[in-house]
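Continuing the batch. This is chain 6 of the set; chains 1 through 5 are on the previous pages. Same settings as before, nothing changed between runs. Recording input and output for traceability.
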Amino acid sequence: MRRVSRLVVPVNAAMQSSMRRQTADVDGFFDRMVRQAEAASGGTARGDEEFLEGYRYLLRQVAKVRTMSPLGWAGFSADLKGRMTNRFRVRRLVTENPEILDEPIERPIVVTGMPRTATTLAHKVLAYPEGNRAPLMWELQATDRFDIDPKVRKRRINVARASARFGHFFSPVLPDIHAMEPESPEECVFALPHGRNQLVTFRMPGYRNWLDEHDFLPDYEYYRQVLQVLQFGAPKRRWVLKSPYHLEHLGVLMKVFPDAQIVWTHRDPNTVMGSWCSLMETGVAICNREYDPHQIGQDWLDMLSRVVEIGRDVRTTLARDRVVDVSYHQLTANPYDELPGIFKRLGMDFTPRDEQNLHDVLARPGMKRGHEYSLAHYGLDPDMIDKAFGDYTRMVHAMR
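Output for chain 6:
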């Protein structure tokens, strides 16, 4: 399986000198990014010093990655500048319209679970009912009021589409493994400032340790503001959110969204690890000149098992009706039988319209995700995975 396009080598060669200049003075480059983000957003960085220092530290860590390719540097720095632009825009809109902060985010549905556990299927189906709403990819990247100029909306959608094409262009297999659609529901990580999603392309032990100590409460409070901006002046609907990394932050999430209901999808970690590492290798192959698949396997085995452990610990503090457990096996084998019960536990009716939407979602090419992978390629075996996840694997099998 060819993970990267043949164009990657000549493009990296053409961008090499630019990357060297920018990484040689990473602080100066970051300061220029901040000024550009301010200009693009119409907002200001003043008053957001702690947020900026976090991103400055992150960019410094990226610049230290020995194996980084120019394409990887360009893609990461562009994403970081886009996140700062969106942050400054959201803060400007809140300053101009303080009543935005009065918008209630009521009873959101939060889809989580390890990656590759049918969270995308659950997200797309649960977001479809007329009373529900999920943030779209372009909205998370370029947040604004619902009544923005249609020409501005179209331009921002086109920018998001170009961003999605970046990965698809340089990796022919990516659309089959994880296609991104700018006008479809997307993961919260596109708006949350920090998280393990920043580790999907580069190995950064310093940033990984920094995440373990980071206070995520301000990140989730900012994300609430993103949703409030999107909701301001629009018909009120129930938000349906999604990210596998919410598992690690359920305690913080429940502080910011105290009446949230969690939909937790479960799948055998042995299958998850092979599929997830394959997706990770695709991103790593684009962004690095060289890499070790075994290191990908070990890193993500450590991180995902820790994420599940933390999520399970917090889960013991929540009322039973706050979490809806979903078996990947049952959901994918019998979606038409399983989903009505899931809807009911969330206080919703599964209508003929929802059944037709499920049919349409399952028929989309992006939902089939056929690709090849093996645990051995990533230095993993079932015994290692079972040891790392403890009795979680037995719990998942008991749900089948």
